[in-house]
């Protein structure tokens, strides 16, 4: 079996040689078989050399033109994102109308190339856009968040199916820690990209981890914008996640403005770039909880809580937050955020389902009593304990059961405990 080096230059030379070999096979387009002897062919001498040479030149020119056409079609099959539409070559003595045999050769060559290189219908194997899987994960693995389930799936799918989006999709997730914001962000990465959060097309930034020092904001701005630009150059579909968004410096939020607003159309590009920005924040969490609890006390089922019940107060709470620059940034003031996504407080039954999913994911045995014990340890998550009172907790603490969290990575493992960090914060920037 023919094997070629993976060096780009040598690989291209190898492909060209293979194309020429295919052209020389009997029955290939332009191949006329053995030359038929013409009149007087039995005579030999120098006077027959020049016509023979001219015939050879004609065949070489035809083979070269045909090889270029083969190469153009082959490259469009394997690298569609770099394919440029070209006009059909004019017909000639050996014109090729993409006959069935030529298509068979093209299929053979494509199959051979894809046997040792990644080939995908989308043209970029890093991008999967598995909307069926995303819908399943949101409905099966995410508990108690019917608003986020519907809104995230609808907006992300609708955006990625646009032929030429005019701006990035910007979503802002709001709610108390442990309600599923990081979990949904991870679901998006896992279903939109082959390598999930490890993909070259996905970048995660944590405010107090990557940008801990206000005095270094100018350096952070340069690093952040450079990272976004490089990622967008590598991938035509990118995902950027900003955790603890309420703690981002106003200067960093301002630096994001050019990437979030409307972009001038780039007609020369075969594929329009797409970017999704997720901002995860605890801002507005208390307002969400108050609204939901009031509706539940009024007798409305949890599943009947609508987006319209929360959006006005959530937007107002985010914009009026006194200790955060996020609400006063250009993102909110200039309406660069497309949707504010509320995450509702969990009830006892939801916490039990999260614990059950954690056991199932680790293939561990569990009992109903153990699920109850875990749910009782997560008392700060459970909305049920507030139903008989008229007040809500005024402050937020991390998981009350650190030991339980270590063993039971619940259905929102990455958001698990926003524990107080010990020691200095390392200012490492993602590559």
From TrEMBL:
Q: Which UniProt keywords apply?
A: ATP-binding, Cytoplasm, Endoplasmic reticulum, Glycoprotein, Nucleotide-binding, Signal
GO cellular component terms, A-Z? endoplasmic reticulum lumen
Q: Which residues form the signal peptide?
A: 1-30
Q: Where is the AAA+ ATPase domain?
A: 167-309
Instruction: Quote the SUPFAM superfamilies the UniProt record gives.
Output: P-loop containing nucleoside triphosphate hydrolases
Q: Could you say which protein family the record assigns here?
A: Belongs to the ClpA/ClpB family. Torsin subfamily.
Q: What is this protein called?
A: Torsin-3A
């Amino acid at each position: 079996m023919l094997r070629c080096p993976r060096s780009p230059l040598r690989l291209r030379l190898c492909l060209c040689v293979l194309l020429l070999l295919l052209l020389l096979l009997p029955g290939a387009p332009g191949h006329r078989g053995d030359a038929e002897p013409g009149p007087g062919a039995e005579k030999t001498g120098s006077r027959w050399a020049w016509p023979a040479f001219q015939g050879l030149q004609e065949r070489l020119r035809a083979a070269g033109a045909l090889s270029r056409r083969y190469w153009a079609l082959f490259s469009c099959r394997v690298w569609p994102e770099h394919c440029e539409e070209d006009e059909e070559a004019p017909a000639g003595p050996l014109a090729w109308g993409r006959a069935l045999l030529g298509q068979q050769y093209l299929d053979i060559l494509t199959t051979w190339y894809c046997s040792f290189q990644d080939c995908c219908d989308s043209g970029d194997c890093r991008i999967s856009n598995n909307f069926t899987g995303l819908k399943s994960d949101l409905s099966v693995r995410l508990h108690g968040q019917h608003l986020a389930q519907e809104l995230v799936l609808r907006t992300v799918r609708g955006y990625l199916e646009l032929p030429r989006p005019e701006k990035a999709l910007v979503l802002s997730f709001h709610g108390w820690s442990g309600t599923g914001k990081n979990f949904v962000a991870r679901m998006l990465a896992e279903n939109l990209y082959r390598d999930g959060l490890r993909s070259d097309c996905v970048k995660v930034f944590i405010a107090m981890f990557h940008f801990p020092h206000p005095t270094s904001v100018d350096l952070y701005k340069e690093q952040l914008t450079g990272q976004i630009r490089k990622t967008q150059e590598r991938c035509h579909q990118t995902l950027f996640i900003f955790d603890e968004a309420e703690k981002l410096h106003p200067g960093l939020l301002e630096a994001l403005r050019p990437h979030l607003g409307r972009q001038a159309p780039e007609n020369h590009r075969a594929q329009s770039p797409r970017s999704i920005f997720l901002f995860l924040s605890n801002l507005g969490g208390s307002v969400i909880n108050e609204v939901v609890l009031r509706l539940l006390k009024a007798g409305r089922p949890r599943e009947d809580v609508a987006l319209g019940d929360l959006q006005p107060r959530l937007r107002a709470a985010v914009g009026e937050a006194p200790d955060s620059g996020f609400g006063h940034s250009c993102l909110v003031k200039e309406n660069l955020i497309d949707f504010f996504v509320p995450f509702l407080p969990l009830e006892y039954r939801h916490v039990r389902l999260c614990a059950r999913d954690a056991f199932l994911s680790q293939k561990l045995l569990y009992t109903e009593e153990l699920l109850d014990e875990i749910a009782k340890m997560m008392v700060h998550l459970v909305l049920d304990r507030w139903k008989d009172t008229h007040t809500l907790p005024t402050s937020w603490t991390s998981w009350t059961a650190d030991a339980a969290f270590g063993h039971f990575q619940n259905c929102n493992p990455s958001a698990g405990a926003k524990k107080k960090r010990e020691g200095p914060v390392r200012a490492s920037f993602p590559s």
